[in-house]
Known about the structure:
The complex is a heterodimer of chains A (348) and B (255). By secondary structure, chain A is mostly helical. Chain A contains 15 helices and no strands. In chain A, helix 14 packs antiparallel against helix 15. The two termini of chain A are 37 Å apart. Chain B has 255 residues and is α/β, with parallel strands linked by helices. Helices cover 39% and strands 25% of the residues of chain B. In chain B, the strands form two sheets. Chain B has a six-stranded mixed beta sheet with strand order 6-7-8-3-9-10, sandwiched between helices. In chain B, strand 9 and strand 10 form a beta hairpin. Classes of the chains: A mainly alpha (348), B alpha/beta (255). At the A-B interface, helix 11 and helix 12 of A face helix 3, strand 6 and helix 4 of B.
Amino acid sequence: MTNIGIIGWMKANLFNGWFNSALTLLVAYLLWLSVPPLVDWALVNSSWLPSGEQCTAGEGACWSVVTANIRFILFGFYPHDLQWRPLLAVVILIALLFYSQNRNHWRKSLFYAWMVGLFTMGLLLKGGLFGFASVESNLWGGLPLTLLLSVFGLTAAYPVGVILALGRQSEMPIIKSFCVVYIELIRGVPLISLLFMSSVVFPLFLPEGLVINKILRAQVAIILFTAAYIAEVVRGGLQGVNKGQYEAADSLGLNYLQTMRLIILPQALKIVIPPSVSILISAFKDTSLVVIIALYDLLKTTQTTLSDPKWMGYSAEAYIFVALIYFVCCFFMSNYSRRLERELDTGL
Amino acid sequence: MNAKQAEKTTDDSPIITIENMHKWYGDFHVLKNINLTVKKGERIVICGPSGSGKSTLIRCINRLEEHQRGKIIVDGIELTNDLKNIEKIRTEVGMVFQHFNLFPHLTILENLTLGPIWVRKTPKKEAEEIAMYYLEKVRIAEQAHKFPGQLSGGQQQRVAIARSLCMKPNAMLFDEPTSALDPEMVKEVLDVMISLAQDGMTMLVVSHEMGFAKSVAHRVLFMDGGEVLEENSPEEFFNNPQHERTQLFLSQILD
């Protein structure tokens, strides 16, 4: 069978046998039914102007709902004339993440860059120093809040999860049982109830006058929750490392911490890259549950926009826009995990 | 030249002393009343049928297995539950495993420098020089920047031997170092072990390589059912075995 040229390729991949040919035709017909109307709706007949006047008349998508409210969707109640600050913070964060992708850049200078970056982002969001006007954290919202909760939630949850996994394998009964109880307790409870407890129940136990920031409480709840799942995944990785590796490390005289850090964890964590990334992706999307404790994350600001009578009918467009933002983030995460797997493959 | 003629005179101080040592796995009595003294520079081959406890015996010497009764003294330090002592003994006693157990995520060079850098606190540069010296010695220096997965079994085992040597051990334990290898690779590993013997290394070798035992061992131990049944010079052991189970074992493996 020829494999050359478009005809050859089609013969080999689309029309080899009557069953595959029939499927190809069926799929082509379904695409013909669905794609052109979609393109018409999303692009051809759509209206983009922020005024949104054509929306009521037109038949296409009303992207105006996004363009008119973009600032509220992205930044929530953050003071209008100061919104360049969260924007800059997000840009810095994305730039740092991109730069950190390359493992050759993992040097001390990168660590300092993150320290400086984190400080700058904090300063930009919160203000109150160097002449930046102070902005209370209850005004933070939209994309910066979603990224804040997820980036810090995930980076903090991972090491906590690793420690819990090691603790669960410990031979010391107190540590072991603490970790088992913690993991099983947290996994047995939905994230929503944890968030709820952190926002409603937890403050009841605090001494009077002591108030802990609501975002911080939600952040801690997300970290504790995600860590329990990470712990179980990492435990699987630890069990996947050959017993001989422990023995070889022991026979060189390495102590427990060195053995774990230099020998066992690098191998265990490599094994569990795919399931860890699954958990990180789902945790990223789960940050949208903070709506129930009245934090205005990206999804909540979108919902709020849609409660305006003027834009009420255009939820599909608004949600597609937010979905795209989520998708882009998740896509980068899974892409990066594949790249890491490839780079760390040493053939054994 | 015969290895035994080339050696330096063995000094009489014992480096490993085992007295009345017993070990159980639950109810199963794996090692029964083991007594063994290994002098500096001495080379001992331990053989016996599978399940006889020979691997367990040498794994007790660096505490990969714990003994329950009796004494094990290595380099003047008694093995107890004291972690510091255990780690000290492990740095003095090298071990080579049946399945090599190289660290697959590190290059050959990193496998060799890991112990010296983290345990002996040797500066990285110096550790790399030591590593290259021993890689030359096991004739594999050109592979230094590859990963273990890219090497053949025989090469991996030679790297594993070099990895132990980088810690400058006073004694080496070999746990069936050639039994996981393809036949054509056994010789390259044995050659390295023979040259190690010629340098005067104290060696405890669990192995069925009778040719190796004949040419380098000072003593051969035969174990069965967790006991040392016979202990003799290689000549006596092979030509005039005393115990009937030794005779049976030899007749089975020499065929």
